[in-house]
Structure formats: C-alpha cells, structure tokens
Predict the structure.
Amino acid sequence: MRTPGLFGAMLPAIRDSNTLHQALDLGYRQLLVERGSLLAMVGPLAAAARQGVAIFVNLDAVEGLAADSAALAFVATDLGFSGVLSVKPHILKDASRFRLRTIQRIHALDSTGLETGLNSVGRPSPYAIAIAPAVAIPEVMPTIRESTNVPVWGTGFITTSEQAAAVLAAGADVVASAELGLWREFRDARIRD
C-alpha cells in the first residue's frame, strides 16, 4: 500500500500541536487526530506524514474539515495522511477512491447501537472498525466477530493501563488514548499476529 502500516498496539489520540509533538518525541509512527483544529497543526502533521508517520484523522470531530470529497482529496493528496475515521459509511466509501485507509467508527453504547453500526459496515469493507467506547470491547467482541473479521480498534474512554490491556486482551488490534502516561507505557507494545 501507499501508506505506512500500523505496528504498535497504542494509537496516540492527539488534539493539538503539543500532544502531536509529545507523541512524536516518544517515537510513535502512528497517530489519530481525534479532535482539535486542523489549521493549528497542519504544518507539523504534513511534515510527520512526509516522514512516514501513519496519520489518521477523525472527519467527524476535527475542525476545519468537511466530510466531503474535497476534504478527502486534501487529506490524501496535499497532506499525505494515511486514513480517515468516520461513522458515515458513504464518506468512507468515497475515501477509498483516494486510497485512504478507512476506519468506520461504531458507537457501542448499547446493543442497538452496536447492531446498527455493524449492519452499516460498507463494501468494500473498511480497513478497520473503531469501537467507541473502547471499554465496551471485552463485552461486545463476540458479537463483532460474528459479523466481521476486519481489525478492531478501541477508541474512547481509555484512561488506565488496565483498561487498555483488557481491550487488547479481548481481541482489539489497536487501542487509542489521549493519555500521555499510557503512550509511555504502551510505546513498545506491538500488534499481535
């Protein structure tokens, strides 16, 4: 593929230039731009992407990006990002035209949300699905595996190492967190084969 792959089990969720630099200083080669203003960090993000850092952006929450084809072209072509995350399957389908890796977020707040999200997983299948909140993964992984075999990312509400470890032990490939302490602790954790 054109974009770098993911190797680590921890995906730092960044929200500003400060957290971006903290993650890069720790040696991370993969990042999720979860929130914040794209304009405030576009230069350092583009530089990191040019250096081979896999950058995924949450189209539903980052300021300065519309969830449309023009934004997808900008993210893929001008910034060199690796992929996009969204709850909107039609946006992800469009993103695949730009050779972006697509991550479909599913809100697993209850069984209806999980079922609706899993039923909306589009074709082609996304690169991964991101379950939010991640702390639900130990409970919902059997249901997910009955529906799909795409990689699972845990996103949201991961604040302790015990939570992160439980999500990974339940079968998630990657766990995202905005907690600097967890970035340090899980820096060398690798995705299982």
Summary: The chain has one domain: 10-185. The radius of gyration is 15 Å. The longest strand covers residues 101-107. Residues 35 and 62 are 5 Å apart (CA to CA).
